[in-house]
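Question: does this match?
>
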Amino acid sequence: MPRPPYARPLRFLLLSIGALLGPVGLVQAQAPADSTRRPADSLAVDSLRARLERAEAAIALLRGQLATENESAVHTQSRVRLELSAFVLANAFSTWGRANNVDVPQTALAPAPPGSRPPTDYSTGFILRQSRFGAAMSVTDILGGVAAGDVDFDLYGGVQAGPGDRRLFPEPRLRTARMRLIWPRTEVMVGAETPLISDLNPVSVAAVGIPVFSGAGNLWNWLGQLRVTQELARAGTGARQVSVRAQLAVMSPYAGQIAPGEPDVIDAGERSGRPAVEGRMSFRWSDADEPSTIIGGLIGAPGGEIGVGGHRGWIAVPGGTATSEAVSFDVQAALTRWLELRGEAYAGRLLRGLGGGAIAQNFGTPPPDAPVGTLGAPLRDVAGWVQVNVQPHPVVLSGVACGIDLVDPDGDPVRRQNTVCAVHTTWRPVQPVVIGVEYRQYGTRYTAVGTHGVRHLNFAFGFEL
């Protein structure tokens, strides 16, 4: 008798249901152990089925990841690859003493006038305005080299006395923007960057908006410039190489000063009509191909760089111009895989425009009988900072640092000396989490009222993407 057309599918369905319910019935019946043993071919089928299920799950996960990556990819109009970065940073701070800025201090303030003293010298707060955001791109085979560009923003813009409150409503601020053409031994850069003679900053997650030691040896202002770097000599091959480089920069003539009688609020450096120029010679060495610096919280391979530089600029003053000048020395060296040294020093005059030179002063106090609007003597200063960083564990980086700025007292400055010391520890337990703590102590000496101090404690938590 012929089978009905539905017999085979029905038989397959019944067998499938029996295969699914069979083990349940066996368990419920509590059959003897030897009666529940399955043949070897059944075990092989189950093993194959499990492997197939794992493979299907892995394929589904991979498809999801590819779809997510495709959706999150950044496509520029020119189809150039663009890499985005972000450091979302929260800082909780406490400051003891009168400081020029309580969240990222640079100097201690003199005592308040009688009758206007604050109720206490203690302040605390919580900010996110030191968060940073950036983008970078590169294109090969441009004029025989590589074209690279990057831009870096933060939320540290605005002024404390402006509308609203910069701590509650932080404003975006451009930090650096660079466009570079790179060849094997030559590089041309156009953009906004730190001064060539002071191109190094201390490591810190508590002082991002304004670098540590601003006003204590660290010249950091981001200034528009055209910079050329040329490698003059190279020795060694492979991982062990040494090289000598020469650099020249033509910079925006910024002084951080308004000349007396200026009606248009134009900076005295710009009013001079002459750009500033800087030069630097450096010696590099390395024991490996990787960078000999701190990147991503890790000290690089042994190696480093020593440089000497010079600066010259002009500032408009009544009756002509005054010359801004400096000589500098800098060093950055990874001595071992767990020990790094970095620092800078300079001597010069009229350097406020480079970022805190002479404790943010250009001219001293004019004589008491001088006419209104008269400038005091141009101020000279000698300053420098040094930081030692150690890495006892790959996820922990600690360091201690000090900086000082000594202003020539013959110029009768308001602030004669500023000393800052700091100790920090940064912990990266797992990517992308960053946790840090830093303590700093300030001592600012005033010509008229002596030395006054500030203590600052900062806790940082962030995600580095």
